[in-house]
Amino acid sequence: MNVKILEGPFTTAKLASLRCGQVVRLSGRVIALRDLACRCMVARADAVDLTAAAVFHCGPLMVEGPDGWRPTAAGPTLSARLDGYAGMLLQRGVRVIIGGGTVGEEVRLACARHGAVYLQAVAGAAARLAHCLGPAIESQFMETCGASGALWAFDAKGFEATVVVDVRGHSLQRKVRTASRRHLDRLLKGSARSETV
Amino acid sequence: MAAIHWDRHLVELIRRTATDLPSDVEAALKRAWRREVRGGQGAWALQSILDGVRLARQTGVPLSQDSGALIFYYSVPSGFDTNALVARTRAAVARATRLGYLRQNTFDPVSGAVFPTNVAQASPVIFFEQGARKTVEVRLLLKGTGSELMGRQYSLPDSALGANADLDGVRRCILDAVWHQQACGCGPVTAGVCIGGDRATAYAHATRQFLRKVGDGSHLKVLAELERRVLRESRTLDIGPIGLGGKSALLDVKIDAISHLPSCYFVTVAFMCCAYRRRGAVLGPSGGLRRWLY
């Protein structure tokens, strides 16, 4: 598979050539957060600088060692739960959102409007993704959200994900969903309702 | 009850379950990878998963940040003190959380507060049954949240699906549930299916199917045939392991049936994510290890 190297800071100019289905290997500032931390950010706009950062929808399993906090497993959480915060993140300068599962139509349109992309990481690769994130360089909202719900910043290296929504608003998930619906309808139409198996 | 033995072996059971897949699951993931087109999204996703599994095993870290629902299934001898076993199980979960094998993953739905040791009402979930042997068998599932969210329950007949209260109706429900989960179940997923039951017992029975090994097939011939057919047909949907295309939306299908009331014909589909964490152990009455299961 042809892998595209993507290095931060993540600007629209760097993302413009990415197309749906392309695998990127990303290095740079990645901020992991979930809905709890997003809720805190709504109230505290100055909490963290998001300009040209990648946001990763993830509540990592963090352990504290002598050199600070480090993730041991960091797969994506379901991004659909955070659809309502996408506009806020993009307005604050985020141009790459990484997550798991599908995102809503409003996120697809917001990506096109802001020149941003949505990437899907592989949930089952959590140990590998944690390794790529490396040690945490910053955290916020730990007291309120606990270690798994806090905001964590990393200097990621070689983090792989697939482009699912590109800067033009094209969506690979939408394409697969539509085609698979056709396949399903064919399967269900092609068998008699009373057929035994 | 010798608490020290129970604590040591139950924590070790949790560690094994959280950090390494059973061999039947890993072999199924490799078979799924071989079925995918080289250079395609499905092959890339499965290769990433297999790399992650190897790294977790080598470094002893959890396979997934999402510890999921902690579900223990015990088979105990007649007259065994199950209250004491509940206490030992809860102590083991708390210790495994402090050791970092489990994430702080349990929340109060009213206050929003986290339970820091994962011990709370209904966490962990513990089922008991009385077995014929003098040993205690314990099996543990860690069921990820993404797959938990994608479970569905159908009441047949369902005119929208063209599904009658028969096995073809069951087939339609499973394929529909697979289509709905798309990218959201942390796939490739395994479907556990219960035909019949009431609403609550059906979900529990569907989830219990994940104690079976991948590829083992139902003991009922007609259901084993249905499992094979649904698995074959699911590959033609082109959903793929993570909803970006490919053949392996489903890793396996496990179907079982329990009795139902005349006016309720439920088909309940539970999903298990690709981090299909299932382990077990046989322990003596004092908690001494006899052997590991799976």
Describe this protein's structure.
The complex is a heterodimer of chains A (197) and B (294). Chain A is of the alpha/beta class and 197 residues long. Chain A has helices spanning 12-15, 35-43, 86-91, 105-114, 126-133, 142-149, 172-189; strands at 3-7, 23-33, 54-57, 61-65, 68-73, 96-99, 117-120, 136-140, 151-165. Chain A is built from seven helices and nine strands; from the N terminus they run E-H-E-H-E-E-E-H-E-H-E-H-E-H-E-H. In chain A, strands 2-3-6-7-9 form a five-stranded mixed barrel, surrounded by four helices. A two-stranded antiparallel ribbon of chain A has the order 4-5. In chain A, helix 4 links the parallel strand 6 (96-99) and strand 7. The longest helix of chain A has 18 residues, at 172-189. The N and C termini of chain A lie far apart (39 Å). With 294 residues, chain B is an alpha+beta fold. Chains A and B meet through strand 5, helix 5, helix 6, strand 9 and helix 7 of A and helix 3, helix 5, helix 6 and helix 8 of B.
What are the salient characteristics of this protein?
heterodimer; A: about 200 residues; alpha/beta; two-stranded antiparallel sheet; 9 strands; about 30% strand; globular; B: about 290 residues; alpha+beta; five-stranded mixed beta sheet; four-stranded mixed beta sheet; 8 helices
Which two chains touch over the largest interface?
A-B, 55 and 65 residues
Low-confidence stretches of chain B: none
Question: Count of helices of chain B?
Answer: 8
* Sequence of secondary-structure elements of chain A: EHEHEEEHEHEHEHEH
Structural class of chain B: alpha+beta
Strand order of the largest sheet of chain A: 2-3-6-7-9
Radius of gyration of CA atoms of chain B, rounded to a whole number: 19 Å
| Main sheet record of chain A | 5 strands, mixed, barrel
**Helical fraction of chain A:** 25-40%
Calculate the mean pLDDT score of chain B and round it.
Answer: 96
